[in-house]
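Report of the visiting student (M.T.), summer placement. My assignment was to run the structure pipeline on a short list of targets and document each run. The first record concerns RNA polymerase sigma factor, sigma-70 family protein.
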Amino acid sequence: MRRSARLLALFSHQRSRLIVEAARMTGDRASAEDVVQDAWLRLSQNARDTQIAEPVGYIRRVVRNLALDEYRQRQRRERVMSSDAGDAAETQMADTAGADRALMARQELALVVAELARMPPRMRRAVELHRLSGAPLREIAAELGVSVTGAHALVTEGVERCRKSVRGSRH
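After the run finished, the structure tokens were exported:
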């Protein structure tokens, strides 16, 4: 089987999981499907020029990065649109309990994202796979080259770090 055919088969096998992972990050299935399609285009382009040692890890990382980019772009668009509506409307919305909760959720998300960025790469990947993708510990262990117990420890410590970061901001 040619390399491109193997990559297509591998991608097709992973596609559903990639869409779920991207949808959790973007909050929108249609955007997630676009992200996964863009990731496939990048994988197929880069595979022509170079040998990709871990195509599953590569495509997951590309999906994650593209989904984060999509999420950030949407946030910027929403900020621009809301600032165009004027400060008076924004002030009225901020007075409602729902807006307060939304603001708190965005702040907590920013704290979690910052904490993830400070984590060692393997710990961050373990948390992302477990919490964002719903990957089982056995799969995480295989991808990271650690025991299932080691994968559990990475996830547990990473999640606890995120919780402490959020709790610390409330005090």
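Residues 1-84 form a domain with the Rna Polymerase Sigma Factor; Chain: A fold (CATH 1.10.1740). The mean pLDDT is 82. I thank the supervising group for their guidance throughout the placement.
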